[in-house]
Amino acid sequence: MILKSPKNKIMVVDDDAAVRNLISRFFSYNNYETETAADAKTARGLFQKFQPDLVILDVNLPDESGFKLCQEIRKTGVIVLMLTCMTDTNYVLEGFEKGADDYLTKPFDLEILKAKVGALFKRRSLTQPYADTLQNRLIFNELMIDVEKCEVTLNNNPVALTTLEYDLLYFLATHPNRVWDRAELITSVWSDDNEQEKAERKVDVHIGQIRKKIGDLDGKLIKTVRGKGYMFESPALE
């Protein structure tokens, strides 16, 4: 098991120096280790050296789209929170499609940003208590979940899941053959979310993304129980 440093590390990528410095100082004060970058090129170099646990990423970067950088970062398993002035629903959905774990629009409240970051780290840590009690791998025909690495493969090919998608799949796979309604999934996996109805819609969106990525478009593995919720039907849990 990989040992984390005492402080969670956050990298802030934003072309606005005032925003970068504000967020960096705020999270440093709240016991996080932080580094900042003003563009995608600098961010890539810093990412390799700093090895952050989470990246707060602006969409509008001077050298390229933050969506592209988000997609690259998510392949490493690092958490990404998109931060942008774009409020259009299409931009928000594109952020999630590119792998973002959460999304916050400018102007923003630092305490809300802190709460979202805390919730993302909480979701990531949900896998740790089970790692010592379950086998290192969960195998369902061609689908394999590596518990220690928090990685999923399909036919030995890596599946690029977001943190939330992995946590949802992991939770359902380790609690199979039982129907979970959306509110239960939010409580168990998501985070404390005051916008309950909005969060429940997000559950449906992310379940759909998981199905697409693991080749379960017909819903044979993750079943929809109409009027109730979702159930992971385990064909062979090893």
From TrEMBL:
SUPFAM superfamilies: CheY-like
Pfam families: Response_reg, Trans_reg_C
InterPro entries recorded: CheY-like_superfamily (IPR011006), OmpR/PhoB-type_DNA-bd (IPR001867), Sig_transdc_resp-reg_receiver (IPR001789), WalR-like (IPR039420), WH-like_DNA-bd_sf (IPR036388)
Positions of post-translational 4-aspartylphosphate modification: D58
Ranges of the DNA-binding region feature: 135-234
Residue span, Response regulatory domain: 9-121
One GO process term, biological-process aspect: regulation of DNA-templated transcription
Domain OmpR/PhoB-type: 135-234
Keyword Cytoplasm: no
PROSITE patterns linked to this entry: OMPR_PHOB (PS51755), RESPONSE_REGULATORY (PS50110)
Annotated keywords: DNA-binding, Phosphoprotein, Transcription, Transcription regulation, Two-component regulatory system
GO CC terms in record: cytosol; protein-DNA complex
GO molecular function list: phosphorelay response regulator activity; transcription cis-regulatory region binding
Annotated PANTHER family: REGULATOR OF RPOS, TWO-COMPONENT RESPONSE REGULATOR ORR33
Entry protein name: Two component transcriptional regulator, winged helix family
